[in-house]
Amino acid sequence: MSIKLHRLLKRQLKKGGVDEQTQLLIAPLLDQVNEAYMSFDSDLYHIETVLEKSSQELYHANIQLQSNVETISSQLTKIAGNIREVIFEMDLNGNWSYLNPAWETLTGLNVQENIGKPYYIFMKDEKGKPLQNLIDLDNPNANTFSKSIKCLTTVGEKKWLDFSIKVIKTDKGIAEGYIGTIVDITNLKKTELALIKAKIKETKANKAKDEFLSTMSHEIRTPLNAVIGISHLLLLENPKIEQLENLNALKYSSEHLLDLVNDILDFNKIASGLLELEKTDFSLEHILNGLHSIFHHKAKEKNIMFIIKKDTSLPQMLIGDSTRVSQILTNLISNAIKFTEEGKVILDIEVAEETKDSYQLDFMIKDTGIGIPEDKKDKVFQSFAQANSDTTRKYGGSGLGLAICTRLLEIMGSTLNLESVEDKGSEFCFSLNFKKSEITNFHESTYKIDGKLDDLKGVKILVAEDNKLNIMVIEKFLTQWKADYDIAENGLIALDKAISNDYDMILMDLQMPVMNGFDAAKAIRKSNNPLNKIIPIYALSASTGVNIKSKIKDFGMNGLICKPFNPTELYRTITKILRKEFVA
Ligand code: ADP
After folding, report:
1. Is 66 exposed, middle or buried (0-12, 13-18, 19+ CB in 10 A)?
2. How far does the centroid of ligand 1 lie from the alpha carbon of residue 341, in Å?
3. Atom of ligand 1 nearest to the CA of 400
4. Angle, to 10 degrees, between the axis of helix 7-15 and the axis of helix 27-82?
5. What pLDDT, in 10s, does the model give residues 307-360?
6. Residue 400 Cα distances to 259, 287, 376, 386, angstroms
7. Which of 408, 381, 385, 406 is closest to 397 using CA atoms?
């Protein structure tokens, strides 16, 4: 044999007892086998080299990983150590298995001493009873929650704690413990409680303010009612020429004072958030007719025109607060006429958008008056502010009208916009959304009494009123209107009279001695006289308390007529009530 045999082949040949002669005989075969052994050796060497290299790489990667883990865990420990909130781990028996250092700050207890101990050794209710039922240890899956608890700490301090816990589960979904946090929210809670207390106090103060305003309003309006009423009466009683001027001044001043009182009371009510908007079906046409009848004459007196322009698609009926809509329009139109010496004032109403169940209406009040200087445009919307200091002297006013309009529109989700050029005129505009009403036809003329009412002849009215001056005024009016009337000085007398007589209407003052107007109305409705179930009972009051309208309805009354009243308006209102047209 010439070739050098591989050591393993050599060993096999020796083991198999293959002598040299035989080896020669099978030499070619042995050559091939030998070659296979050799190439296997070279492969093996290659694999070993690769393996060696990989294992070295693995070793380095491992070292890097270990160092990363150490960095991360030291960062986590740092975070957990410095965080102000307690972070904990707990086993399924409710024993702490980890607590960060914040535990010592919160409780004054040692972390090491507490590990392995049950949570309720610290977590106690404000009476010091361990909160053993805080965690349902028999039902780990129910223990993922967050609760604010008032606790008594080991040093006897009462603290509000926010306790959050979450169950930890294995890959197979088996609960193996809990993690969570405990946060001291005592300061937060104290602030929250202080805020609640302050809110209750504020509500009480607002209520007291409303009651005060309501009483004040009654106190102020009752004598005003008499002054206005008497000045009207005196004017009707053919005064001498020299008296006429004084009487007109008296009438103007008392009406002006009333406007001021109304504005201030209204502004207060709106500013203190006590105003609630009504949502009732109303006829816009009705409001516009009213505005026309008030302002047509005023404009004529100044020799200017007052025009109402209406979109042809303007709906008949809408749902909203008609009193407030009409209050805004009255204010803006009255300003426009007040500040216009020549030309015209236009109220323009357009349907801006109609959806399936609502309308958006655009209202514009344009005048050709004195205008508002650019630098005063913001100022005029503030309360008690007027564009010029001599405005009050020249035109009167309190500077509250625009502030009231702005707030009212804000409550209705709208804004009041102004465009104006000095000496050319002003335009105030706003948009309002109204729900569509289901009532499509507004019947104004469901007459109870046939025909037109020229006076109140044959109409029997019961007036419940305790104020002597007011009695005198209303007596004079009712006599002049030829009405048949009875006066009751308190609610009880009114009840007696309503039982034994058949009236067409009852006008009821609300604040009266012996029995007030609310109780009297309720008692009248329940009384034996069957007519009293349907008789119109209207509160005739100077009160402006919040929700007064809904309160008078609760006591069975039909509506409210505010005092002091303009006699012409009162006459119109009474006739409308008798015709069942009046919607107060
Ligand atoms: P008041 O009219 O009672 O003074 P308002 O709040 O209604 O109070 O108006 C504030 C001021 O804004 C008015 O005094 C007046 O200077 C100015 N103003 C309001 N409307 C107009 C208008 N149409 N034209 C000119 N100035 C106006």
Report:
1. exposed
2. 14
3. 6
4. 120
5. 999 888 888 889 998 888 988 999 999 999 999 999 999 999 999 999 999 999
6. 10, 22, 15, 9
7. 385
Closest approach atom of ligand 1 to CA 365: 23
Query: Is the C-beta atom of 369 inside 6 A of ligand 1?
Result: yes
- The torsion angles phi and psi of 170, rounded to 5 degrees, stand at -75, 175
Q: Which helix (H) or strand (E) holds 268?
A: helix 241-271
* Beta-carbon contacts of residue 55 (< 8 Å; ≥ 6 apart): none
Smallest CA separation from ligand 1 atom 16, residue: 387
Q: Kindly state if the Cβ of 416 falls inside 6 Å of ligand 1.
A: no
Instruction: List b or e across 524-542, with b for residues whose CB sees 16 or more CB atoms inside 10 angstroms.
Output: bbebeeeebeebbbbbbbb
Q: Ligand 1 in contact with 182 (CB < 6 A)?
A: no
CA-CA distance, 31 to 3, in Å (whole number)?
8
368 CB near ligand 1 (under 6 Å): no
Strands 158-169 and 145-152: antiparallel
10-residue mean pLDDT series, the chain (584 residues):
79 90 89 91 90 91 91 84 89 93 88 92 85 88 88 83 92 92 91 92 80 75 80 80 78 76 76 76 84 84 92 87 88 94 94 92 95 87 72 67 90 93 94 87 40 68 88 85 90 91 90 90 88 87 69 87 74 78 52
Which atom of ligand 1 lies at the shortest distance from residue 340's CA? 24
Under 8 Å between Cβ of 398 and 277: no
3-class DSSP state of 448: coil
DSSP letter at 563? S
Question: Is there an atom of ligand 1 within 6 Å of 261 CB?
Answer: no
Closest Cα to atom 8 of ligand 1 = 399
CB 405 within 8 A of CB 328: yes
User: Using one digit for the tens of pLDDT, what is the confidence trace for 470-515?
Assistant: 888 888 888 888 889 999 999 999 999 989 888 989 999 988 889 9
What is the bridge-based pairing of β-strands 317-320 and 86-90? Answer: unpaired
Of all protein residues, the one whose alpha carbon is nearest to atom 11 of ligand 1 is 386
CA 285 to ligand 1 center in whole angstroms: 26
414 C-alpha to center of ligand 1: Å? 20
> What element of type H or E holds 310?
strand 305-310
Cis peptide before 140 (omega within 30 of 0): no
DSSP state letters, 347-394: EEEEEEEE-SSEEEEEEEEEE-SS---GGGTTGGGSTT--SSTTHHHH
* Residue 371 CB contacts under 8 Å (≥ 6 apart), including other chains: 420, 421, 422, 423, 424, 425, 426
- The closest alpha carbon to 437, from 580, 316, 323, 583, belongs to 316
How many A from CA of 370 to the centre of ligand 1?
A: 10
Task: Give the Cα separation of 188 and 577 in Å (integer).
Answer: 57
Q: What is the enclosing helix (H) or strand (E) of 307?
A: strand 305-310
Q: CB–CB of 459/507 below 8 Å?
A: no
Determine if ligand 1 sits within 6 Å of the CB of residue 370: yes
Amino acid letter, residue 435: K
